Amino acid sequence: MTRLHLHLLSDSTGETLENIAKAALAQFDGVETIKHFWPMVRSEGHLDRILVDIAQNPGLVLFTLVNIDIRRKLEGRCRALGLPMVAALDPVTDALSNLLGQQAKARPGRQHTLDAAYFARVDAIQFTIAHDDGVNWENWEEADILLAGVSRCSKTPTSIYLANRGFKTANIPIVVESPPPDKLYSLRNPLVVGLTASTDRLVQVRRNRLLSLNQAPETDYVDQDAVTREIAFARRMFADNGWPVIDVTRRSIEETAAAIINLYNERNGAREIA
Asked: Is 32 in a helix, a strand, or coil?
């Protein structure tokens, strides 16, 4: 196991930098990463305190700093210590600057400005939480996306992820013994997407769920044949209504959400052309 000290310095919240580091580290195995996270670095005094820790725990330094003086001081100290450093956003910013023919605005955290998109995202999150698991189905027409699927098909976490991307998302469990409201079949605004998974995967997830709740692990809820019938029932419903279907068996929440957003954009693009 390789140990790596990773210093993340940002003059804003550091969310962008942390996501970049996370995505890059996911490409490597056998690495124990010790993260030193330094947000809101906006003074040389603050930087001086950070440089002491960097010297004591040498490693890779990633930064997003727009203040020239603070940045030059960090770069000079890293060179003196012989440490690798990367200005995470420079390549993209430079490319945009050349393409657009203008200098980038040196404003820390500008992407976090409370604009209309921010408030739309908050509204989407509130809507999604209020319309989880079939609740408040009377308002489904207000949704952008509605997810349907049998129990433990990742409907709720996918809905929350989509809400964070600004999509009002409702979801409904498909239960053989309890038909959904008729309104589900007459929706015009929301994109209805069916989620499904393999029988083996659902049985495994459901069994783990029952164990975590200290409930009996042997019920129809985890019976192989019963689960297979549930999935078949849901798939017939999806097919009868012409709803797109996504198999989440081998997909992460992010991958499932990306596929749903593609479907949503394709449908809306077709509507605009029509």
From this structure: strand
b/e for 174-210, b at 16 or more Cβ within 10 A? beeeeeeeeebeeeeebbbbbbbbebebbbeebbeee
- The sign of the CA dihedral 62, 107, 91, 72 is negative
- Rounded to the nearest angstrom, the gap between the alpha carbon of residue 157 and the centroid of all alpha carbons in its chain is 9
In 3D space, the residue among 174, 171, 154, 188 whose CA is nearest the CA of residue 267 turns out to be 188
Dist CA 222 CA 213 (whole Å): 14
Give me the residue spans of the domains in the chain: 2-112, 116-273
Strands (E), 88-231: 145-149, 169-173, 191-196
The reply to whether domains 2-112 and 116-273 share a CATH topology is yes
* Angle, CA of 163, 236 and 162, to the nearest 5°: 5
Q: What is the pTM of this model?
A: 0.67
Cβ atoms of 63 and 108 closer than 8 Å = no
Return the CATH architecture of domain 2-112. 3-Layer(aba) Sandwich (3.40)
Give the other-Cβ count within 10 Å of 132's Cβ: 16
Per-residue model confidence as pLDDT tens for the chain (274 residues): 789 999 999 988 888 899 899 999 999 999 999 999 999 999 999 999 999 999 999 999 999 998 999 999 999 999 999 999 999 988 888 888 888 887 766 555 555 455 667 778 889 999 999 999 999 999 999 999 999 999 999 999 999 999 999 999 999 999 999 999 999 999 999 999 999 999 999 999 999 988 888 887 778 899 999 999 999 999 999 999 999 999 999 999 999 999 999 999 999 876 655 5
CATH number of 116-273: 3.40.50
Q: DSSP string covering 60-77, please? A: EEEEE---HHHHHHHHHH
Q: Which two three-digit tokens encode residue 22?
A: 């996370």
